[in-house]
Amino acid sequence: MIGYLEGTLLKKEEERILLLVNQVGYEVLLPAFVMETLNASSIGDSVSLFIYFHQTERQPKPVLIGFNLEAEKEFFQHFISVEAIGPLKAVQALSRPISDIARAIESKDVSKLKELKGIGNRTAQKIIASLEGKVNKFALIRKGEASQEIPVKDFESQVLDVLVTQLGHKPADAKRYISEALKRNISISTPEELFEEVYRSEIL
Predict the structure, then answer these.
(1) Do 23 and 10 touch, CB atoms closer than 8 A?
(2) Model pLDDT for residues 95-123, shown as the tens digit of each residue
(3) 162: which DSSP letter?
(4) Partner of 191 for a Cys bridge, out of 101, 140, 156, 186, CB 3.0 to 4.6 A?
C-alpha cells in the first residue's frame, strides 16, 4: 500500500496531478484545499504528499488521494467514516481548509458544512452526529503549515485559543493543562501533538 510519495510534478489538472517517482508516474487526486497549495508550483518542481490509498471490490482501480500533512489525511479518514461519504465524494467536498471544517463540526454549524460541494442539510447533520467531539485537534491546522516550522510559543497559543474559545475552559486552567502536557512530553513540536497530549490526560 502506498502511504507517501515524493517526486517531480509532471502534469497539473483541476483536481489531480501526475507525479513522477523513480521513473513511474502516479496520478494523484487532490482535494481543492491541497491543490491550492500547489498553485505556485511549476512542472518539474519537487512535490511530496501523504497518500490515502483506496481500492475495494466495487472500486478495483486503485485511487491515490494526496495531502500535505499526515493530520489532513487523518481527518479525511474520519470524514469518510460518515455514512454516505466515500473517498471520491470527500475529495469533492473538502473545498475549504480542514481547520474550518473541523470548527464547523464542533460548533454544529450546519450552514457552514452545507457550503461544501455536494453536502446537503441531511448529510451535514450526519457529519456532525458522527464526528462531533472527535475532530477538535484538526481545528489547529493552519494553511501552509507544511512548509514552515511553528515556534513553540505560537503553537501553545493556538492550543490555548482552542481550549478557551472553542471548548469553554477557563484561561488559567487551559494554561495549566498545556504546561502539564509539555512536562509529560518534552518532544512535542506541533499544535496537534500538544492537543493530543492534553486530550490523553482526559481533561477534555
Answers:
(1) no
(2) 988 989 999 999 999 999 999 999 999 99
(3) I
(4) 140
Task: List Cβ neighbours of 129 (8 Å cut-off, separation of 6 or more).
Answer: none
Question: Partners of 120 in the beta sheet?
Answer: none
- Between CA 22 and CA 19 the distance in angstroms is 10
Cα distance between residue 72 and residue 78, in whole Å? 10
pLDDT in tens, 129-153: 999 988 888 887 755 444 444 455 5
CA 58, 62, 63, 65 torsion: positive or negative? positive
Contact between 37 and 6 (Cβ < 8 Å): no
Could you give phi then psi for residue 156, rounded to 5 degrees? -65, -40
Closest CA to 52 of 25, 75, 24: 75
The Cα–Cα gap between 203 and 49 comes to 33
Task: Judge if pTM exceeds 0.90.
Answer: no
By residue count, the chain amounts to 204
Greatest Cα-to-Cα distance within the chain, rounded to the nearest angstrom? 55
Going from the N-terminus, what domains does the chain have, and what CATH number goes with each?
A: 4-67 (2.40.50.140), 71-138 (1.10.150.20), 149-199 (no CATH)
C-alpha radius of gyration, the chain, whole number: 18
